[in-house]
Amino acid sequence: MLKIKKDDEIVVIAGRDKGRRGDVLRVTKDGRLLVAGINMVKKSKRANPNEGERGGIVDQEAPIQISNVAIWNHEEQKADRVSFETKDGDKIRVFRSNRKAIED
Fold first, then answer.
1. Per-residue pLDDT at 103
2. How far is residue 24's CA from residue 93's CA, in Å, rounded to a whole number?
């Protein structure tokens, strides 16, 4: 079970986007995340007239290391770490600061 999943709200704790928050769009197997509005890069895109796409320079999200982000705790209004507990035989994610379950 992963500590950070798709649709979790995270905050960047290291790098050029430090302090910014966003929702996780995708989690890759090699420990990187694609986060909405975070780690934006410029990419050259080739035009495709058959599909009506214009070419040029576009902004898009680049993956960020999972070690550079922390999950956002809405109750505490701060970044928090995640641990696991068993409840009724199910493994659930909980915040470390207040031991409350993270809604999935």
1. 82
2. 16
Q: Which residue has the tokens 């970044």?
A: 79
Model confidence at 57: pLDDT above 80: yes
CA distance 33 to 68: 10
Residue 61: both structure tokens together: 């999200």
Q: Which residues pair with 34 in a beta bridge?
A: 26
Domain ranges of the chain: 9-79
pTM of structure? 0.85
Long-range contacts from 48-55, C-beta under 8 angstroms, 24+ separation: none
The structure tokens listed for 88 are 């009724």
Please give the CATH architecture assigned to the domain spanning 9-79: Roll (2.30)
Closest by Cα among 32, 3, 8 to 21: 8
**Encoding tokens for residue 56?**
């040029």
